[in-house]
Each structure stands twice: as structure tokens, then as C-alpha cells.
Amino acid sequence: MIAAPITIEPMQAKYNPQVGRLLVHGFRGKFQKLTSMNDDDLSLFFENLFEHYPTELASQRMVALQDGEVIGTISIKWKPESDVKQKQELPSWKSFNNLGKWNLLKMLIGLSLLDHKPQAGECYIADIVVHQDHRSKGIGKLLFQWAQHFAQTEPHLNVLSLHVVGSNPRAKQLYELLSFQTHLQKNSLVRHLLFNESKWDYMVLNLNKQ
């Protein structure tokens, strides 16, 4: 049986539940110390976040699709060329009522501590996740290729960057195979307390535009 083709497409609201579940399964290890929410509640948290929290102006989320199913996702962002500031508002408590205000507050604080503000010329990969049933099939590489092509075609961008935790040497090795180089190693007590991850590598891929 021939496998259905894989396409990389922009995020749409109809994919919110699937992407929410992907993020939970991909980053469960980071959230388990931060919150007592189960996987279903965490998935609902991300689904509501996508629906009610405004996305950043200079950002883009893509999904990898096969037979209409989301099997991977990548989120990138960059520094806006203009100084127009986007008004950020906390999502309505009502949207997350069943999750509890304390859980919501801890998750929002945790996500804010993971947030990275790109510098001029930097295209930052905020997250990349592949469905556990579709790993080692080149889907992550396809998503990276999309991000690299996007950054290559934007004249104001000249590097791709990302963070990888020290407890995931396999991911770091993959990024090195994709020509990323460790630019900075960080030790964070706060992130260790919240996510049980103290060592973080900041990796960069120079695009070498002619």
C-alpha cells in the first residue's frame, strides 16, 4: 500500500485540538512538574490558548498533514521590521474555567519563561513536534526544510535558531546534522525548578545568503 503524501500547510483553527495533543505528548516531560493537569486537560489548555490568545504578528505555525491528520507541527517567529507593538491580553478566564485559575496561571508563567525574543535577522523555531507514530520518517526534516526555505526567502532574516534541553542529546545530534551549531549554553535555576531542566543549548544555523 502506497503511503499518502505529506503536505506542509499553514495552521488553521480546525487543527487546534490535534496540535494541542501533539504539544502535550511532545513536551509532557516539561509540564509534569509545573502542573498536575492530566493530558486531556493540558490538550484543552493549548486548544483554548490557540483559540482565544492572539498570535504574535511576526510568527507562523505550520502543520504536516497526511490523510487530513496532523502528524507534525512547527512554530517560528522573528522580530518585526516595524516598531508597531501588538497589544497582548490575557485570555478570558471563562475559556479555561474547568482547568482552574491556579493551573492556568502556572502554565502562562511557565510559557512566558520559555519565551524567546528574537533579535534582528533571527528566525527562531519556538517549537517543533512530530507525532510519536510518525517519527524517524523524515517529517521533522521536512518541517526544518520549510523553516529554512521561509527564512532564506525573507531578505531581513539571516539565521535560524532554537533551544534544546541538555537532557535531550538525540535532538541536539539531529540539529547538528542539520548544520546547527551551539552558540551558547545556559544554566537556569528557575527553569530547573519549574521544568526540571536546568541546562539549555541555544543553537544557530547561519543561512549564508549571497
UniProtKB/TrEMBL annotation:
UniProt keyword list: Acyltransferase, Transferase
Source organism, top-level taxon: Bacteria
Gene3D superfamilies membership: 3.40.630.30
N-acetyltransferase domain location: 6-208
Name the UniProt record assigns to this protein: GNAT family N-acetyltransferase
